[in-house]
Amino acid sequence: MSPLDLPLGPGGEFDLIRAIAERLGPKGRHLGDDCALISVDGATLVLSTDMSIEGAHFQTGWLSDEEIGWRSAMGALSDLAAAGAECLGLLAAVSVPHQAQRDRVVAVMDGVGQAVAACGGAVLGGDLTAAPVWALAITVIGRASRPASRHGARPGDGLWVTGQLGGARAALAAWQDGREPAAGLRQAFARPAARIAAGQWLVQAGARAMMDLSDGLAGDAHHLANASGVALDVNLDVLPVAEGVAEEGARLGRAAVELAAEGGEDYELLAALPETFGASEAASFQSAVGLPITRVGDVRAGAGVVLHRAGATVELHGFDHFR
Ligand SMILES: [Mg+2]
Asked: How far is the CA of 275 from the centre of ligand 1 (A)?
């Protein structure tokens, strides 16, 4: 029996996870969600681990050392937000290029420390090693009385996203084109914020299912649909798109909403909320958390994700390391 509790969406990375889960059998447990949950004396500990590697996730020429640390930590902390957990802290295992100066390592860890402190936690330990490139493996630790999961969306629920999408993807497009991104786009990539307060607020508001958009809505929505055993209709025409994405999209010949749906690493949250969650609840969310929340679709009976744009359906994919 596979220890993969929740079915994942399609894609090479997830085929590999399915194969690993199959081989692990009873040696694995409750795999497939944003976080692992461990009950200890009535409390639920919430854990997740995430890697950020030079060349795969960032280039040193794009970011300051402090930003490398901040961004890596926030990417990991975002999984705690997805579970609606509070942040207790993190462990950081860092590989440092052989030629790197000591003060660069300290600056990277300064960024890690600033990120976890902004989420209410602290650096609790880690490991240092020398290797050909920068790599950060960040293990985050949180606590939740009622952790959210990708499982639980029901037909009739609304599908909502926090914040604005596409900024990090558009920044990447600029760098890959040899240009410096516009300030707002650069900020989205270099200084993302894990939506810890938003996640906790949405759990309190009755979120039925939640996840973070680390690989892009177009791919990540499949995970929520499959884990919940429902179909999702997403209306791309109403996606909240970050400022400046349209300009980068135009250079690539792509619509802004396509970049916004495909691009991960904005670390916004996707939540299925009961039909009773409407405009006034969205306004309460914004005044409590300081972020917009936008209804982008509906949950219905069935399977799969349908993306609608200008009256037609479109095929888009999220990011997949193993595609
Ligand atoms: Mg996640």
From this structure: 24
